[in-house]
Amino acid sequence: MQASIRTRLATVLKKSSLGRRQKEIQVTCITYSKSYSSSTNDVDLVVIGSGPGGYVAAIKASQLGLNTVCVEKNATLGGTCLNVGCIPSKALLHNSHLYHLAHSEFKSRGIDVDGLRLNLPQMMEQKKTAVSSLTGGIAMLFKSNKVTHVSGHGTITGKNEVTALKRDGSKEVIKTKNILIATGSEVTPFPGIEVDEKHIVSSTGVLSLESVPKKMVVIGAGVIGLELGSVWSRLGAEVTAVEFLGHIGGVGIDMEISKNFQRILTKQGLKFKLTTKVTGATKFGDQIKVSVESVKDPSKQEELDCDVLLVCVGRRPYTENLGLEEVGIERDQKGRIPINSRFATAVPNIYAIGDCIHGPMLAHKAEDEGIVCVEGITGAPVHIDYNCVPSVIYTHPEVAWVGKTEEDLKSSGVEFKVGKFPFVANSRAKTNADTDGLVKILGDKQTDRILGAHIIGGGAGEMINEAALALEYGASCEDVARVCHAHPTCSEAFREANLAAYFGKAINFS
Asked: pTM of this prediction?
């Protein structure tokens, strides 16, 4: 009986779906005639920038049938993320964690290591190998997907024109129907402190230090500062992070998670000076004196000594010298490009995505925006639920979250319930001898719908994707609690936290 009902239902849905698809195809065909180039000398889309947003958008556009060109000013593809951001930092984070395990934990695990020493040049070489293989991979993807790569600094020189200024001074003019700005972001400078990328370094220079500093001061205890500070702390540096705010982890982190995070990192050896402002830095030979003062009481001042000063106060949109104002596109006070719900700027056929528009500066956000933007150019619907975009800090333990924080819900007056489960009660975490952290779930008190998920623990960056999927599909805490999770896995803690949220009690913790 049930099989028969399913068969009839499937037939009805198929007919309904076909009807809708026929209508969508008709609409799409009309849109194509407006969006595609009519001249054989023109292209349909020029993407300026080949970072995660730009290269993904270019590939997707070509897959959808658009004649696509991607203009990149740097010698290699991949933007900040692949060359001097996400990828090289994760290589150093992973390898420095392995070194820390061998140096400090292997003995307790029954592994005796004699003659252990750090080979920093080889560690840097492994990082370079990872970067070059991935940037080279994009070039291969461009070739296989028929995306034309043009080297040069892309400038919009007309509503339907992009000019690429090449390294040798020559120019290449590209006529195009549509333009997509995906130029990303750059390091925000600190007023009064000049970066030399040797002793006073940015998030770029700190990835290539030639030796482990004895002392390092990090200006900013946000995501980037904590990740890179962790790398050098594990390798032997004495690291002190100075943070203007009263918590670590940056904007968006749940305060309970932040407090746990700070406690764990302090136990690992990192030092923190919160609600503290850096007022200047002076270099004396190879040494640096960093002047700081209390945010609440400026009379409380101090000087910190270090070999390396890491300036990590965020990033800003890279939107200079793009020809925006010349074509009628004004930037906001933060240098971002205003867009509408379809990522179109004030000029309808010029679009923008990623770090150069509003929202968190995340590679995966830019990728999603790139895909839906070019789908929109071809006539498809455009929608992203930014509440379902996860954030991850790749320290150890990792910290990850998606959705609302407890503070968000309280300020909005939303009634909610909380479910928590510590990794100390999780069997896989116990066997791994890696029990720091917990899973925290926030659910709607009336509907049980998941409103937010916050994880601190080993592998949190992988586990958070289950939470993002649950939020995207409007799952309840009970929905997740009733899904069978493999045992023993750390993700069982995610299930148990959801069980605690909807039922009030977990199984393996009381």
From this structure: 0.91
